[in-house]
Amino acid sequence: MSLLNKIKLDNCPQHIAIIMDGNGRWAKQHGEVRLFGHSSGVEAVREVLKGCVDLGVKHLTLYAFSTENWNRPKEEVDGLMNLMVETIANEVDELNSNSVRLRSIGDESKLPEACRNELNAAKKETLKNDKLDLILALNYSARWEILNATQNIARKVEKDEIKASDIDEKLFESELTLSDVPDPELLIRTSGEYRLSNFLLWQIAYAELYFTDKLWPDFEREDLFEAVLNYQNRERRFGLVSEQLVK
Ligand code: IPE
Ligand code: IPE
Ligand code: MG
Q: Is residue 93 flagged as an active site residue?
């Protein structure tokens, strides 16, 4: 029986963020090159997307390529960029049929032109979809995003558009890329690593963290449901004591 039946659909996260990790180790276990692991990870993305549609999740943010990942061997970086172009082009119809809108966060300007073009075309083609936002973090790092926001705010102060004392959480958030999206309530990382690797550091201040040993290409819809069930069994206190929470 699917774990979906045990999930309370009225208490699902609105936004799930995932650090998709373990493709390289998965490939090694299968006696293949690392790139084979990355291409096998695409199926896990499809699984998770389907799962989010089942649950009515509104936003799914996937960490696909970090600013630090440029330092990997050139062959792997090139292969990952080609895979991105191919996958985005191949999946547009499927995204449209599930009413999924494609978005991205990160410094796109450094991506290869083909990748940028494909991404922008797919964003345009899926713009009107409103069931689920699929947000790809591409050439993303949280420190980059926070510095970017800080620079934008500093420029406004320089131009006397705002005062330093106007800077509060709301104003700061308005300069972040996902300012129109609620913070993720649930962050999942696969592959048994217990770190955040520069992902959404501002937005996950109060996210529930879920770690699994499964390697990303093995992650299936039921694994997503397991993570959401685990989330639903936690008490989110936000600094209060248990008795203060409305049950
Ligand atoms: C995650 O898998 C995908 C990216 C970082 C692009 P890895 O490639 O990091 O796989 P491992 O961690 O080496 O197994
Ligand atoms: C984080 O995974 C980045 C992505 C999943 C895209 P990494 O494999 O690059 O992170 P580290 O090196 O283990 O921290
Ligand atoms: Mg890794």
A: no
